[in-house]
Amino acid sequence: MSEYRIQGATGEWEVVIGLEVHAQVTSNAKLFSGAATAFGAEPNTQVSLVDAAMPGMLPVPNMECIRQAVRTGMAINAQINKWSRFDRKNYFYADLPQGYQISQLYHPIVGEGSIEIQLDDKNPESLKTIGIERIHVEQDAGKLMHDQHPTMSYVDLNRSGVALMEIVSRPDMRSPAEAGAYLSKLRTILRYVGSCDGNMDQGSMRADVNVSVRRVSDKPGGEPFGTRTETKNVNSVRFVMAVVEQEARRQVAVIEDGGTVVQETRLYDPERNETRSMRSKEDAHDYRYFPDPDLLPLELDDAFLEECRASLPELPDAKRHRYETALGLSAYNAGVLTADVETARWFEALLAETAAKAKKPEAEVAKQAANWLISELFGALNKLGKGLDNSPVTPAAGAELLALVTDGTISGSIAKQVLEKMLESGDGAAAIVEREGLKQTSDTGAIEAAIDGILAANADKVEQYKAGKEALFGFFVGQTMKAMQGKANPGVVNELLKKKLA
Amino acid sequence: MSVDTATVAKIASLARIKVTEADLSAMVPELNGILAWVEQLGEVDVTGIEPMTAVIPNHQRLRDDVVNADPLTGGDMRDAVLANAPAPEHGFFGVPKVIE
């Protein structure tokens, strides 16, 4: 993998990236109140007196939110802090009724961990470890709407008080591709763990992108980091990559023009593909943190941690490794099947059904199932604009189709036609094969007749084959299958052809 | 520790409290008096003593993840939540336009 460099007028530059990801914790109720968290409710219907910061209301932490943060920490091999504490981050804004956000500055619940990213799909060696500094739990703010009234902004507090995990990486990334791979991998892990749904378009996951640049140098460890900027609330992997690229170029231009990069907060404008400075007040960062006197420190016992650990599913890296070693799948296929928890679930259901129908161990049918899912079903669903989540074909129906190929009832090419008909009609594979008369024939008489016809019509090619042009064998197979409308058993065709051409 | 006029003005501004020049100069010695009084605590030797987080030994209680389990701390009370708002509109809080 060649290193990412920005070619400036005065030399080469390297980019240094760290991400702070806000991930909404999957829970029924909010972090400190019993109001619901569901997306898309009528404004202010999911707001309790606690979330509206009415005087006298006290926060009580939601155990599930704490549990999910701990499970997430364990999934990134992080240190779990059995003693953590909530702090108040003070600032005034119309979307924050308390006048402070309850967060964890000094004693976060999760300490240092890391995740591994793969920079090249096809190259299992292209791994890089990205450090994670901490994960803390905090409240989300409400939502402001500015375009509904000429002189007023409207405030909806439904999101106010919903639990967020802030996942802070180390400045370990060095290219847009690495930043994108990190965010994708983090999203995959969160979805496996079930601690965040990862829906970036609904705002369940958004990233603050910290970028700085420095000159490429031979010194061990390189030049010191440059001044960084923070681009807020970037809500897709593609946009994160674009922010890194644009911001790095902008900073190089500023420095090479004799200026200095200002440490500031910026916004990304996807329409113009550029970042711009937020006109924030100078004292915006004077948050006057202090321990929240409404909350005691959070103390977790061993039984709680043990329950969290026991409830973790097989994680993507482990699953991928198992697919390669125990199931014998290629690195690429294992990567595709484990990239999303839903795909892995679908594949495992298909594999179990296929193995049961074939009465064979899973390892023996895994390649067939994986190849069919990746090269046949994905393509067919794609054409219909669908995904596995709304696939008309279930894992059991897929297994039925694969079983028909395995036992020789239909050929691989007929299976493609049957799949299309299954997707159209929702009928089972066996019923379609029966109805449409697609059964493969091993009737040697019929196949022989077809072969004789082909060989007679292509006497010149038979000559060439006998003269040593063995590649023509495939041509004869193809022609025979065509003559048999794809229904001939390929094994029988091969065998008969070999005899006749000998 | 002590504060000067500029610091008090800044804290007032961060807290969105309007303080006149005259009040400001009166407030500086008052706040410094409070700070000096609290600072007497610095005379106590606390070597080896864990910071106290509550007056009585206690653990933080946690809630179960149940929506509206207790009506006092649940949602579905838009009218009550908006009852004291100066400009509720269409179920929203209306506030003076704030746009970055």
Helix content of chain B: 25-40%
**Domain tally of chain A:** 3
- β-strand amount of chain B: 5-15%
The number of E-state strands of chain A comes to 16
**How much helix is in the residues of chain A?**
25-40%
Sheet with the most strands of chain A?
9 strands, mixed
Largest interface: A-B, 56 and 42 residues
Count all strands of chain B and give the number: 2
Could you describe the largest sheet of chain B, including whether it forms a barrel?
Answer: 2 strands, antiparallel
What is the average of the pLDDT values of chain B?
91
Order of helices and strands of chain B: HHHEE
Strand content of chain A is: 15-25%
Order of adjacent strands in the largest pleated sheet of chain B: 1-2
User: Remind me, CATH topology of the domain at 5-43 in chain B?
Assistant: Histone, subunit A
Radius of gyration of chain B: 22 Å
Instruction: Provide the residue-averaged pLDDT of chain A.
Output: 92
Assign an overall shape of chain B: flat
N-to-C terminal Cα separation of chain A, in Å? Answer: 50 Å
Domain Asn/Gln amidotransferase (chain A): 345-501
Protein name (chain A): Aspartyl/glutamyl-tRNA(Asn/Gln) amidotransferase subunit B
Pfam families (chain A): GatB_N (PF02934), GatB_Yqey (PF02637)
Keywords (chain A): ATP-binding, Ligase, Nucleotide-binding, Protein biosynthesis
